[in-house]
Amino acid sequence: MKKILLPTDFSDCATKAVKVAMDIAKAQDAELHFLHIIDIPADWITIVSKAETTLYADITKKVNDHQQQLSQLVSEAKKEGLNAQKHLLYNQDYKGILAYASDQKVDMIVMGSHGASGFREWLIGSNAQRVVRNAEVPVLVVKGELAEVKANRLLVHNDFEIDELESFVPVVNLAKELDAKMDLLLVCTPNDFYPSPEADARLSLYKSAAPKLVEDTHLYNALTEEEGLISWCKQESPGLLTMLYNKKKTKNRYVRRHVEELINHLEVSFLSIPVD
Q: Among 269, 258, 232, 268, which residue's Cα sits nearest to residue 133?
């Protein structure tokens, strides 16, 4: 892992995401990229270039203030011995974040969340969900109420299909990079019911694919998948919840509604890993 992107709105929850990103960057010797998006009048840049500084003075101050905040983040990262850089985008939405991640070839995106009350503001609103759904790299959503993220312990939540073992490869690779151990969790519901022999076979197959990394497997029964996962996390206080996200296969159960429901109601940080 060489580059980590942290989109920030300078809120408290984004500040906690910064700490998590720095911890991971230090462990991986990775470079941090701080990204902020600001809305300005369409002609502001042209006006400034003509030195018409008396116009839009409030916008000029706002841009300067945000640049200074980004510079402060870079300074903090460098004090921790990290390489870091900043970037300010104008009048962009989530597509700007994805484009930057692609252009810079980042390996992970780390974002803040306001917690169980759901996403708020531009970064924590629908744009954040779109980043999770469309990113080509893992996205870590840090819950605002948590002081730290246990990135060395991954709770992998999936249906562990027998014929989709190759989808587990990105998780194994990331666990190796993070020097993390894994627990595998299969939630069984009335609509997706697995007899014990089948459930055991699924979990055992995936554990056998990475025996040195998978420490335990778990089967949990609930009325709905979301309810089961939320209840499990409350009872067991797991590390970093990890979900395989397949954008191309709409039949996959771990798609749009799960991203929205789970992130909004879970009290643990959430790592989405895109798979083919």
A: 258
CATH architecture under which domain 3-143 falls? 3-Layer(aba) Sandwich (3.40)
DSSP string covering 64-125 = HHHHHHHHHHHHHHHHTT--EEEEEEES--HHHHHHHHHHHT-SEEEEEE--TT---HHHHS
Radius of gyration for the alpha carbons in the chain, expressed in angstroms and rounded: 20
pLDDT at 115: 46
Dihedral (Cα; 101, 105, 107, 112), 10-degree rounding: -20
- Considering the entire predicted model, what is its pTM? 0.84
pLDDT digits (tens, 9 = 90+) for 180-194: 999 999 999 998 888
The burial class, CB within 10 Å (0-12 / 13-18 / 19+), for 223 is exposed
Pairing of strands 153-157, 139-143: unpaired
What CATH code is assigned to 153-274? 3.40.50.620
Please, what is the end-to-end C-alpha distance for the chain in angstroms? 20
Mean pLDDT value across the chain = 82
What type of residue sits at position 118? G
The three-state secondary structure class of 9 is coil
Long-range CB contacts for residues 256-264, cutoff 8 Å, separation at least 24: 256/133, 258/225, 258/226, 259/129, 259/132, 259/133, 260/129, 261/226, 262/226, 262/229, 262/230, 263/113, 263/119, 263/129, 263/132, 263/141, 264/116, 264/117, 264/118, 264/119
Q: Which residue intervals of the chain bear CATH 3.40.50.620?
A: 3-143, 153-274
Interatomic CA distance for residues 54 and 194, integer angstroms: 68
